[in-house]
Amino acid sequence: MSLIKKIQNWYVNQCDGGWEHEFGITIESLDNPGWKVVIPLERTSCEKKEFNIVDIERSENDWIRCEVRDLKFYGYGGSENLEEIMSIFINYAYIE
């Protein structure tokens, strides 16, 4: 299954008639350039899951920082790291 399909499935599984009205996935571009991904975890199966910070610095344009704080997954990365950020989230969300 493609990464986009997995993200879609995770989102659909959270939708309960209320969650989707309060929460949503945000993907933004950064001006350094890069990406910022914010995914709310409140009222999801990930709400109480532990997450180990991911901090990878390969080069000025190839870097990742992912963390969970305040019941949100935050993923930041270089301009070509969006897929990797999303993959880190999916691996976290689907591992029991």
Automatic annotation (TrEMBL):
Domain of life, per lineage: Bacteria
Name used for this protein in its record: Immunity protein 53
